[in-house]
Design a protein that fits this description.
This protein has 3 helices and 5 strands. 41% of the residues lie in helices and 28% in strands.
C-alpha cells in the first residue's frame, strides 16, 4: 500500500486529536521546511528515522539513441535517503 498525503493527514489527525485542516497545515509546513533546507544544500537528519542528503552528479557523456550522436549531459543534484540503524532494524524485524 502506498501512503499518500491524505492518509498521513488522517492518521495524524486521529493520533493527536486535531482537526484535519490543522494536520494538513502542519504536514505542509514540515515538507516545505525539508524542501527549503535541501534546496540550500544542507542535509536533513531526523533522529531514529534517517538522513536526506543532496548528491551532486557530475557531467557525463551520453548518446542520442535515435541518431547515435554523442553529447555531454549536464550534472544534476538529486536527493538521497539513508535510513537510520533503528529504522533498518525495524524493517528487518529485529527492533
Amino acid at each position: 500500500m502506498t501512503v499518500t498525503r491524505a492518509h498521513l493527514i488522517k492518521s495524524i489527525s486521529r493520533q493527536v486529536e486535531l482537526p484535519k485542516g490543522q494536520c494538513s497545515h502542519l504536514l505542509q509546513t514540515l515538507l516545505e521546511l525539508v524542501m527549503k533546507t535541501l534546496e540550500s544544500g544542507e542535509d536533513v537528519v531526523i533522529s531514529r528515522f534517517g538522513k536526506f542528503c543532496i548528491k551532486e552528479n557530475d557531467k557525463r557523456r551520453g548518446r542520442n539513441p535515435a541518431t547515435g550522436e554523442e553529447l555531454l549531459l549536464n550534472g544534476s543534484r538529486v536527493v538521497t535517503f539513508r535510513c537510520s540503524t533503528v529504522l533498518r532494524e525495524k524493517i528487518n524485524g529485529r527492533g
